[in-house]
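Example record

The entry below shows one chain as it appears in the dataset: sequence first, then C-alpha cells.
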Amino acid sequence: MDRLRAYEVFVTVVARGSFTKAADALDTSPANVTRYVNELEAHLRARLINRTSRRLSLTEGGEALFDRAKSILEEVAETEALATTASLQPRGRLRINAPLSFGSLVLAPLWPKFMAKYPDVELDIALIDRVVDIVEEGYDLAIRISRTTSGNHIARRLGCSQNLVCASSDYLALHGMPKVPADLARHLCLGYTYGATSDEWQFAGPDGTLESVRVRWALRANNGDTARAAALAGSGVIWQPRFVIGQDVQAGRLVEVMPGYRMPPIDILAIYASRRHLSAKVRVMVDFLVEAFQDSPLAKGELAGVGK
C-alpha cells in the first residue's frame, strides 16, 4: 500500500464528505477510493469512517488521524514547493571542488563576480588536487584539468590547458639544454603526482609525431606550486600548465626548453552529476564559468588568468 497516497485519499474523502466526490477530485474511480480507505483501516486495525447510505461520519480514531494526516500532507506540499523553487531559483550552498593552483590563480578572482551576481548562493570551495568522487563526497560541481572523465558524470568544456617544459637558467648552465625529448632521460626532473603520464612524458614533435621519454625524478609533489618552487631554485626540469609557470617564463625566471616539442593540451572541464533535475545554482555557475572563459586566453590554452 502507498501509505502517503492512502492518507491523501482518506483526507480528501473527509474533506469532500463523499467517496464519489473524492474520486472526482483525485481523478480516479470510487472503487479505488474505497480500496485505499479499506487498506488504511486494515493497516491501522481501526475503523476510521462510519458509512451510512446518507452520510459519512468519523470515528474518534478517524478524527485524530484526519487532523494529523492533513497536517502531514500540507508539510509535504510545502517541502515540494521549496524543492521546486530551489530547482528554479539559484540559492543555497554550492560545494565546488577544484585543483589547488588553478583554483587559487584562475578561479579565485571570479568568485566575487559570481557572488555579486547571485547573492543567494553560498559558495563552499574546496581546493584539492586529487580527483574526488563528487557524489560520494557531496560536491555539486568539480573543476578538473583532465583528458578524461567518468562516463557517469556530465562534462562541460571550459577551456584548454597548455603545458610548458622549463628550467631555470642556472640549472641549464650547469646541466645543459635538452634539445629533444630523449635528452630529458639524463636530466633531473620535477614531477606532479597526479599527472596522467606519471614518469613518462609525451610530446608531439615538429612533424606531429608523438615521442615519449621516461624521466628520472629529483622531486615529485602532489601540488604544482611545490614543483614550481623547486624549478625556480634550479633543482630540475619541470612541466606545468602555462597558468602556473607562464608568468615565470615571460619574466625570464624560467626558460622554456625544446620549444619545437609540445605536450598534448589538457581540457579544463566542469563536472557535475547529471543533466536531469539540475539545480539552478549548478546551472548558473556552469553558465557563468563558460562565459568567463569564453573571452579568456584559456579558451585556447594560451595564457594564465581569466576575468582580468
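Notes for this example: Residues 60-88 form the longest helix (29 residues). DSSP finds ten helices and 14 strands in the chain.
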